[in-house]
Specification:
With 208 residues, the protein is mostly beta strands. Helix content is 13%, strand content 62%. The protein is built from one helix and eleven strands. A nine-stranded antiparallel beta sheet has the order 1-2-3-4-5-6-7-8-11, with no helix packed on it.
Amino acid sequence: YSFFVPFIKCNMNLGMNYSYSRMPSYYESFKNVSNSHNVSARVSFTSNISQNVDFTISSNTGYTFAKNTTKTDSKYFTENVSGNLKLIFLKRLTFSTDFTFNYADNSSAEDYSDSYTLWNASLGVKVFKNRRGEFQIAINDILKQNSNYTHTISDTHISDTRSNILGRFFMASFTYRFNSMDKYMGRGMGMGMGMGRGMGRGMGRGMR
């Protein structure tokens, strides 16, 4: 469900989901049937202020409860909050930043919980007369919390996975935006006007 919020000039989106699954499995020669209930809710705000200000904030909350016939029941809670902001000021300067916060808690896995925040930012300047070129300096993983750690739980096992990543790093870049639509649109309009004039003259002579 989506609607416009006038006093903050933003579009608000709301959503909710529920799912149920029944899955049999074997654990230590015993048959286990897992009845899993999953509930999630989402809310987000998207800006509609101007071409120079653009931002999005969203939150996703999930809760999973699994009841097993031969194993301990499990409960799993997750929270994800993310956002991004893009600004253009003084006509040529740009600033953008984004963040993601993740939290996970599993009461059935020895009180396992994990949380981390990923934050990136960049500063740029638009160049050339048409401002289609842009020099940009960016920094990724400002807080150095990207551990790329995954905790997986299934009916038969619990696994922890950690992989190597770059971590915090700086990057300089240059981009140029090609846009040939204006040229084609201009030609199309010229052809349309020429055909209109020609048809008008032809019809006028015929009527005489």
